[in-house]
Amino acid sequence: MAKQALGMIETVGLTSLVEAADAAIKAADVTMTGWDKIGSGLVCGFFVGDVAAVKAGIEAAAEAASQVGEVNSTLVIPRPHEELGQMGPWIS
């Protein structure tokens, strides 16, 4: 995952995450690697790409998701450590 970034967006409800994913993929050259149910209605989507693209994609995702639901949090990790990929297949 060298020279890549990992972006995450956590929303309340799957509908908001679908809207977020659509916006992120359309706005920037990012790949959605997966999503996970957190619990209590929270879901998290994972995106990878170069740092600038992931930042732009996550910003677009947060804006779009907030129009239809609630965004709980966002995070962009530039050049994540390779061992972070052991947490799940959506990070690799």
TrEMBL record:
Keyword Iron (UniProt): no
Q: Is Ribonucleoprotein included in the keywords of this UniProt record? A: no
Can you say where in the cell this protein is located? Answer: Bacterial microcompartment
Q: SMART domains, from UniProt? A: BMC (SM00877)
Sequence ranges assigned to domain BMC in this UniProt record:
5-89
* Keywords (A to Z) from UniProt: Bacterial microcompartment
One Gene Ontology CC term in the entry: bacterial microcompartment
Major subcellular site: other
InterPro entries, alphabetized: BMC_dom, BMC_shell, CcmK-like_sf, CcmK/CsoS1_BMC
Per the record, the similarity remark reads: Belongs to the bacterial microcompartments protein family.
Protein known as: BMC domain-containing protein
Per the UniProt record, the source organism is: Oceaniferula marina
